[in-house]
Amino acid sequence: MSFQEPDRFFTISVDSESEDSKNADQAQSLASMLGRETGIDLKILTVAAFKVIKAVGVLFVLPLETYSLDKYTNYILEVAKKLEKKHHTIYLNKNDKENVDQCLKWMKDNNITDLYLTGPREEDSPGIYERSKKFFVLFFEKLKEQNKES
């Protein structure tokens, strides 16, 4: 299966007997069931659901606590809940160091080894790109330190 999204190209190649084939079928089913009213292309929703299925946990990166979820981010939340995936939310208006510590603790406590990241796009939340970048630079520095210690 191949899916095109603006600025991105996704390819999911599966043989009919593989676990990925079952995951792809489940992703299509979730997209049809949960994404029906979003107005977002079903192919994009299928790829997103596939990625959530493959992940151990989902991290929601939001600008602030009062942020109303956009349709895509809300869809990912519904998929995560339906699949009973562990998920965590950080708010970028909070202290970055505390967010990083909290996120790393959540990952360690829940044995999160494969993480799906989601949140609003820059066009829906001006400034989110720079705030997210600042958070993730600190996040990866701290993760690197943590990995050296263990």
Automatic annotation (TrEMBL):
It comes from the Eukaryota. This is 4668_t:CDS:1.
